[in-house]
Amino acid sequence: MVKDYYETLEINRNATDAEIKKAYRRLALKFHPSSNREPGCTDKFSQLGEAYDVLSDPQKKATYDKFGEEGLKGGIPPEFGRDGAWSSKYVYHGNPDKTFRQFFGGDNPFADFYTNDVPLQFGGLQPGVVKTQDSPIERDLHLSLDDLFHGCTKKIKISRRIMNEDGYTSSIKDKILSINVKPGWKEGTRIIFSKEGDQGPNSIPADIVFIVRQKSHPMFVRQLNDLIYKAQISLEMALTGFSVDVETLDGRLLNIPISDLVHPTYKKVVTGEGMPLSQDASQRGNLIITFDIQFPDKLSAERKHLIKQALK
């Protein structure tokens, strides 16, 4: 059956490019199988795609206007191609959805399109409905104190649903997200990857949010930008003085003399030996040394007497 592309688009042969586009827009929306379930709509939608594919291309249109469908699809001698005619044999790709997407733009042609000519009912999407973003997907990011002291890069593989080119089906794809951990980040720091969640036909992908969770450390307890170190000492050391050796997170050994009498609430503050500040890594918090005084389990009568004499 010989096709009349102009008749298919319900326009005359003198139609301008703008009129061709307007006609295709109106009819493609009207006969799209997702909005029109009447018999024959699928064939009609395919015919509209082929008609627009030809008439929207100047070379194909010139060949069709001069030689008809037979010349367009059968090919014409090269010498007739001087006036812009299509000299190769034309074969429609057979995917009207592809033509539709290329016309409206984007992977999902229904997502942001609205017209007063034809009510949209695609997949339940109503006229004027604004796409909403899915709720954020939150995941814990467990980091060691060393990671947060020095900074590091963490690479995390996620699996997300991606819409295929047809705009209707989807598939699962893996993606690597890279997180550049800055020195001094605190517990609860949120790292947001915008719109990296699952894709859907009528929604905006969710943000993926990683929340920093600090692992425990065998030597230090973190308190904001300060590091707390607990030293175990004897009663004798608490009363007579001593020094504490502390290995820092960057591998240095600090020797800190304690000349004061040490009681259970005593703290020694070493300035600038804590965690780096996230806003300025050259600045640091403090190292705070607390003490766990080990009292003797028992004392002989002689030692008790000596202690009484020493404390008088």
Overview of the molecule:
The protein is of the alpha/beta class and 312 residues long. The chain folds into three domains: 100 residues, DnaJ domain (Helix Hairpins, Orthogonal Bundle), CATH 1.10.287.110; 78 residues, Urease metallochaperone UreE, N-terminal domain (HSP40/DNAj peptide-binding domain, Sandwich), CATH 2.60.260; 75 residues, HSP40/DNAj peptide-binding domain, CATH 2.60.260. It is built from eight helices and 15 strands. The strands form six sheets. It has a four-stranded mixed beta sheet. A three-stranded mixed beta sheet has the order 2-7-5. It has a two-stranded parallel sheet with strand order 1-6. A hairpin with a 2-residue loop joins β8 and β9. α2 runs antiparallel to α3 and α3 packs across α5. The longest helix is centred in the N-terminal third of the chain and has 17 residues. It starts with a helix and ends with a helix. About 8% of the residues have low confidence.
